[in-house]
Structures are given as structure tokens and as C-alpha cells.
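ingest -> validate -> predict -> emit
validate: passed (alphabet ok, no gaps, 329 aa)
predict: started
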Amino acid sequence: MKKRGVGVGCMWYGIGNTGAANPAGAFLDFVEDGTVIVLTGCAEIGQGSSTVLAQIAAEELGVNLEDVYVVAGDTGVSPDAGATSASRQTYISGNAVRLAARQAKEVLLAEAAAWLGAEKEELALAGGYLWRGGEQTAVTVKDLLARCRAKGLLTLGSGWFNPPTTGINEDGQGVPYATYSYATQVAEVEVDTETGRVRVLRLVAAHDVGRAVNPQAVEGQIEGGCVMGLGYALMEEVRVEEGRIANPRYAEYILPMSLDVPEIYPIVVEEPEPSGPFGAKGVGEPALIPTAAAIANAVANALGVRFYDLPITPERVVAALAGGEGKAD
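emit:
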């Protein structure tokens, strides 16, 4: 017999290190041909941070994304950006890059104001052009760069950001994080009561990301985190026998494959964070955290038996239904 159930998992997550210094720096060079070089210590490990940092720089400087080159994780030339962990790089390195870009942009705007006899506050850069009072002018960013170079003005910028936090005192009080991410996921499962196999049919994952700098990348992070959480819930288990790992190979340590992946519906909730770059926060670990809880709750809803140990393997399901494991709700 196959039974279906639905479960919900919710979470909140502090972005960055817990109540500790959490800085990142960035250098930026606005070159005469209109291209931009960003130096960051942020390690790109597949999460798309180099693309996001390029987008932040391009948006702040008013240039095209394809004109921004990011040199990431080169300790010989880039400033420290801290670890690629704690879902922190978009928020922290993103702020550092934006501040570096703003510093370089100020040189251009000051030159434009002097040239046009305008107030700097009424000027802006967007789409490769200078804008005045909300109207696009015929002056390009390259024109301004050429004028700066002719005067010996280098359009360089540096920036660093350390979110305001405090340590936790003996009473458990403090400000461990500057901002938080929130998420709710809903799982629908089908459980075969004869074989014990749990099949996840659908996952709906709603995540507050502040502002999605790259919506496609955010959806990819959510989908990847859901698959990782599915493995945690149903398959992945490190077995230790007499102090040694008994399943050190992928032939024995089971991971979810493409055929195990259900329909995933990522919902990107944008509630801009005032202290983030263009309102952004982070979506690394949050995409993983609620998944196993949602699946376990769905299994409990289907069977009336709750599991307190993961993964929920077929053997454990069969044993629980026979009264050997788990607890009837």
C-alpha cells in the first residue's frame, strides 16, 4: 500500500559568522576603455559569487555587465574576503564591492560636475551614459574617463564591510548577526508501506533573499539545496564502527541522483535588507536547512509514525511500521 503525506519545515538563519568580526574587502579599477577590474578574495566554488559581484559593480557604476572582470580568490593580489561560508559573500563582499565602485564613481561624477557646471547630486551614471536630473545626456562614461586620465585622475576604488554585531554575553544576550534569512518549505511524499521506500513527489521552497541580484542563480541555489536536504533526509548516512567510517566510498554512501529529484518549485521572496548591497542577503545554507524537516513531517503525516533519526531509510520505515522503531503520533 502507498500512502501520501504533506509536511512543512521552517527556518531562520543568521547571515555571516556568529557575533564575530566578519569583514571583506575589495579593490576596483575603472579603466580608460570603460572596462572594470574587480579584485576580491571571495572564493568562487560554483555558487555564482563572481557573477553576482560583477553585477553589483556594473549596477553601481552604470556600465554593462560584460565590461566587468572579476579576479577572485587570488591571495597574491586580492584583499581578504573571509571564507565562502555562512551564506555571507553576496551580503558582505557584495557591500565591499559596491563601496569600492562608489568611490571610483565619485571621481567621475566630480569631474562631470566641474565640466558641466552642475551639482554632483543631480548627476548619475547608467547604461554607459551620464544622466542629469533624470535625463540622459550625450556624455558617455568613456568620455568622462578620458577627461579624468587627461588630468591625471585615476578612477580607483577600495571598500570594505564588516557587519555590525556583538558577542553573546553570559546571559545569552547580544547581536550575533546583522541580518537574517527566512524560509518555509513544503514537501509531498509517497511511502510504500511494504518496501518502506519514501519518494518525494514535490517540494515547494519559499525563501526571503532580500533582493535577488541574480534571480536565476537564486533559484538554482534553492533547487540544489533542496536536493542536498533530500539526501540528508532519506539517504546519506555515515556509519561508524569501532571509531572508523564503515562506508567511505560512494558505492556505500548513497547520494541522490537525477531520478531521485522531485518537482521543485522555488519561490523567491524579496524583502530588501537595508544594510545589504541593493537590498541583498544570502541564500546558501538556507536552501538546505528546512528540507529534511519538511520531508520527515510529511512521512509522519503519511504513516502516523514519527522518526527522530535520519536518514529515513526503507529499513527504518519497515521496522517502525512493525513497531520496532519510531513513535506513533
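The first helix runs from residue 49 to 61.
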